[in-house]
């Protein structure tokens, strides 16, 4: 019987010692190498597709993992159409799926369904959150490792790489049962509290133009706002990142007024959790060491240099 990769990864947890009824130390399941993508701050992960080595860009944004159109063509795969997709640019297209035998580290899944994506750049696909669920995930960008940990551990005792103080913030999204699949966290930028999305597939961090205008009076005519806006300070759970430079872009999904966004016949305030106003890309994330504690619903952070 064929099982989806998420079920096979979860089955690995059953082969490792765990004591659900007591507080246990961290238990590492396995590690994956993070491979720098030339000419960018992003990272790829090594995988095999139908026995052929490939590289997928690490993405915490697109929930379903994806295979590039070029890879589908080169491997003579047969995609099938299923539904429609809305892109971040506001375009609608037919969703296509392919079924492949996928291997990640020691874990193999036959018949894994993957979305076909059109533009992948120098990689063969996208490594999405659906391949990282049911585990804690450590993002060690400086050490170039993505590590999987079991979720049964002492609460709050996950920052194992340093004894220096760390920051912690709650996160929403990420799980299959959530209407919001992307992972967002609360941040403060120049004194304003907003929600930010963690997006490892994005090279440079982005703020939507309406938020930049309404909260910070940054417009296309502002000094330094084309194509970027310079801010004084970004704070994540007490961790300070000085002088972040953010690309300012319009959000093409839904319609906005100065204080609200409307989509799917619903009106949300900017501070609601409907869509994040800020996407944190690798220009900022690469300065950090992250640990996503799935059961706790918390993200732990230190500077990347913390030892």
Structure report:
The protein folds into 2 domains: 5-148, Acid Proteases (Cathepsin D, subunit A, domain 1), CATH 2.40.70; 160-303, Cathepsin D, subunit A, domain 1. The protein has an 8-stranded mixed β-sheet. The model is unreliable at 16-20 and 253-274 (pLDDT under 50). The longest helix is centred in the first third of the chain and has 10 residues, at 5-14. The protein has 307 residues and is mostly beta strands. A hairpin with a 4-residue loop joins strand 10 and strand 11. 9% of the residues lie in helices and 42% in strands.
Question: What percent of the residues sit in helical stretches (DSSP H or I)?
Answer: under 10%
Instruction: Report how far the terminal alpha carbons are from each other.
Output: 45 Å
Number of separate domains: 2
CATH architecture field of the largest domain: Beta Barrel
Low-confidence stretches are: 16-20, 253-274
For CATH, the homologous superfamily of the largest domain is named as: Acid Proteases
What's the mean pLDDT score? 81
| Radius of gyration based on Cα positions | 20 Å
CATH class of the largest domain: Mainly Beta
Topology as a string of helices (H) and strands (E): HEEEEEHEEEEEEEEEEHEEEEEEEEHEE
How many beta strands in the DSSP annotation? 25
CATH topology of the largest domain: Cathepsin D, subunit A, domain 1
Structural class: mainly beta
**Strand line-up in the sheet with most strands:** 16-19-15-23-14-13-17-18
């Amino acid at each position: 019987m064929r099982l989806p990769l998420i079920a096979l990864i979860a089955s690995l947890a059953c082969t490792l010692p765990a004591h659900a009824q007591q507080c246990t130390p961290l238990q590492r399941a396995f590690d994956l190498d993070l491979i720098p993508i030339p000419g960018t701050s992003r990272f790829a992960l090594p995988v095999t597709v139908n026995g052929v080595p490939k590289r997928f860009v690490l993405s915490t944004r697109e929930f379903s993992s994806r295979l590039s159109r070029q890879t589908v063509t080169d491997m003579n795969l047969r995609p099938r159409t299923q539904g429609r997709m809305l892109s971040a640019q506001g375009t609608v297209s037919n969703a296509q799926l392919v079924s492949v035998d996928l291997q990640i580290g020691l874990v193999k899944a036959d018949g894994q369904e993957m979305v076909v994506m059109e533009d992948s750049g120098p990689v063969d696909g996208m490594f999405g959150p659906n391949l990282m669920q049911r585990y804690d995930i450590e993002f060690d960008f400086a050490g170039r490792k993505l590590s999987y940990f079991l979720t049964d551990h002492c609460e709050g005792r996950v920052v194992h790489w340093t004894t220096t103080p760390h920051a912690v913030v709650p996160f929403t999204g990420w799980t299959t049962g959530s209407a919001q699949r992307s992972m967002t966290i609360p941040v403060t930028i120049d004194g304003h509290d907003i929600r930010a999305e963690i997006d490892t597939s994005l090279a440079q961090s982005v703020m939507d133009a309406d938020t930049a205008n309404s909260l910070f009076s940054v417009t296309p005519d502002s000094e330094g706002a084309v194509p970027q806006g310079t801010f004084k300070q970004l704070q994540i759970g007490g961790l300070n990142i000085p002088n972040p430079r953010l690309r300012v872009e319009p959000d093409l999904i839904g319609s906005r007024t100065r204080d609200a966004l409307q989509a799917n016949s619903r009106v949300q305030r900017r501070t609601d959790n409907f869509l994040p106003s800020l996407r944190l890309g690798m220009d900022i994330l690469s300065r950090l060491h992250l640990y996503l504690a799935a059961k706790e619903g918390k993200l732990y952070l230190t500077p990347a240099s913390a030892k």
